[in-house]
Amino acid sequence: MDTPPHTPPLYRNSSFDSLDILYCDFAYQQKGPFRMPTANIAETTAKTFAEYAFALPLHVPKGYWLLIHVLALRLLSGPLMDIYVGKTKRQWSLHRNLLSYHSTWFREQIKDEIKEKGGKVELFDDDPRAFELLVKWLYQGKIDSVSTMAMDKKWDYAFACQQLYILCDKIDLPQLKNLAIDQFRRGCYEAGLVPGPEEMLPIYQRTSPISPFRKLVSRIAARQIMDPNTTKDASMYKDCFAGSPDFAVDVVNAIKEGAGGTLFEDPTEHDGCHYHDHSLGYRCDSGVYK
């Protein structure tokens, strides 16, 4: 499993907060460099940071320049790859070295791009909000925490993390998938909301059969069905059952697991009136048993 670059601890009381930072926006022709605020870039939101491809310090503590220089040469230099995301075809231009370092899927895309000059990567089925989070993780090694967000923002961020998970499942980034599903679960819990059928079905349509996210949403659905304080029943997931038989199987198995071994009354014993064809509410006294 690949991991993002690690920044070693600074000597003495040095701090990157006091350094001059320049940024470059690779989506456009360069007219800079331009100066970034000297605040900790790790605290920049995903949306803001996604507009800038990377940041390098002009001055670093003694003894660390070679390490940073080598790392920059390896990951933050070289040719760029153009990536178009979502129905709006939003464009990013990111370092090939960095993409191939983290993702075998991007590595294969780069090989194809080299074979076909002028090639590009198209992710039209994916969410630009999810790709913003991917960019932040690639260049910063983390994504935002839903716990720091206002209550009315938590669900939107949780859903973006669901989309991020789907994206990472496609491009083979297991470490970021784990971060995404953790933020999704926390966002649901803190917002007091769960995904509906329309959000669950894409998980089964776009992830592998062994995806842990399938297990998560099937258990959420099972819990919703079993909730004694709601009038809703399994019919709310009818479209999901029709769209994915695997979803139906997983929900039934989750209900069985959640029932804790409780066995239903044997329907072949005792009074069979419940299974007779007669008017609703009518009670027969036939004494027929099945």
Description:
With 290 residues, this protein is mainly alpha-helical. 45% of the residues lie in helices and 9% in strands. It is built from eleven helices and six strands. A three-stranded antiparallel beta sheet has the order 2-1-3, with no helix packed on it. Strand 4 and strand 5 (90-95) form a beta hairpin. The radius of gyration is 26 Å and the shape is elongated. Residues 1-42, 49-58 and 286-290 have low confidence and may be disordered.
- What helical percentage do the residues reach? 40-55%
Distinct helical segment count: 11
Strand segment tally: 6
- Uncertain residue segments: 1-42, 49-58, 286-290
Global shape: elongated
Alpha carbon gyration radius:
26 Å
- What is the end-to-end distance? 58 Å
Tell me the β content.
Answer: 5-15%
Biggest sheet details: 3 strands, antiparallel
Mean pLDDT equals 77
The secondary-structure class comes to: mainly alpha
The helix-strand sequence is EEHEHEEHHEHHHHHHH
* Strand order in the largest sheet: 2-1-3
List keywords for this structure.
290 residues, mainly alpha, three-stranded antiparallel beta sheet, three-stranded mixed beta sheet, 11 helices, 6 strands, 45% helix, elongated, disordered N terminus, disordered C terminus
